[in-house]
């Protein structure tokens, strides 16, 4: 009876650990290759398909002579000729880029080589795309002034994701020794707590970093034609991993409080030993 109850109690935290590991792994693998599913997993997207003349040449008197829309259309054609993509997406290891069709359908053309502790530097990405030309594109200072903050937050996020997945895996292993052992459950709960904290920090940093960046771009640089967005799918995955890790920790605590440390015991039966029959003695 106690063994069955322990199996049920251990099932829930183990599932929580496993779910958190799988979801975190999906987040980590997002954007590492230009293949189905992975290329669509990103945190942040910057759309340059509506970039305007202000981005390249700033305020000039040219717009009073030529229609601004014609200038912007020519700029888009020029950017296309210079291999500047219509959009860039940022994941954990790097970025992907692609084009936007006339029907607004997106097509990812390539992804950068995975780089540990990568952070989103849009100016650097554009400079690398234009390194074979004499053209320079200078982004508004409002976007580049916060690069140190973006770098620090991105590196913290990267480190916490890996701490989380490694520690949660160790918690899963420790849980295998928790059957009939409150000590094992206690060890698994402590390890899982560390993984859950790392997951909370990673998800919270990703949410704060990219939502603030999105709002800042859209509120201050919309006149340049830059449009930023956050991928709700990726945010759902990272917070799903965090919730699963917290779920696992809570259930590990319950296994400590409610689990049994006694193994089921059945008294050993005495073996039946057959002896030769001896008739009782007769008195004379």
TrEMBL record:
This is SUR7 family protein pun1. It comes from Geotrichum candidum. Pfam families: SUR7. It comes from the Eukaryota. Keywords: Membrane, Transmembrane, Transmembrane helix. GO terms for biological process: fungal-type cell wall organization. The keyword Membrane applies. InterPro entries: SUR7/Rim9-like_fungi, SUR7_domain.
């Amino acid at each position: 009876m106690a063994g069955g109850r322990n199996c049920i109690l251990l099932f829930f935290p183990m599932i929580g650990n496993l779910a958190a590991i799988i979801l975190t792994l999906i987040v980590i693998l997002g954007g590492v290759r230009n293949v189905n599913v992975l290329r669509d997993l990103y945190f942040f997207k910057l759309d340059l398909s509506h970039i305007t003349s202000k981005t390249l040449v700033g305020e000039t008197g040219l717009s009073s002579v030529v229609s601004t829309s014609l200038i912007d259309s020519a700029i888009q054609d020029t950017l296309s000729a210079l291999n500047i993509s219509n959009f860039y997406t940022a994941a954990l290891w790097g970025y992907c880029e692609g084009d936007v069709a006339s029907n607004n359908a997106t097509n990812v053309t390539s992804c950068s080589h995975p780089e540990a502790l990568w952070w989103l530097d849009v100016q650097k990405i554009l400079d690398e795309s234009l390194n074979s030309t004499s053209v320079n594109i200078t982004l508004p200072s409002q976007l580049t002034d916060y690069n140190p903050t973006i770098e620090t937050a991105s590196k913290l996020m990267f480190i916490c994701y890996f701490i989380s997945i490694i520690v949660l895996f160790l918690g899963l292993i420790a849980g295998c020794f928790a059957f009939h052992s409150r000590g094992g459950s206690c060890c698994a709960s402590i390890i899982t707590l560390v993984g859950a904290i790392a997951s909370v920090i990673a998800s919270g940093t990703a949410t704060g970093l990219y939502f603030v960046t999105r709002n800042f771009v859209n509120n201050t640089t919309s006149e340049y034609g830059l449009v930023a967005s956050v991928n709700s799918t990726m945010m759902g995955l990272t917070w799903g991993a965090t919730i699963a890790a917290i779920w696992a920790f809570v259930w590990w605590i319950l296994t400590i409080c409610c689990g049994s440390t006694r193994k089921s015991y059945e008294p050993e039966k005495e073996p039946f030993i057959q002896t030769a029959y001896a008739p009782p003695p007769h008195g004379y």
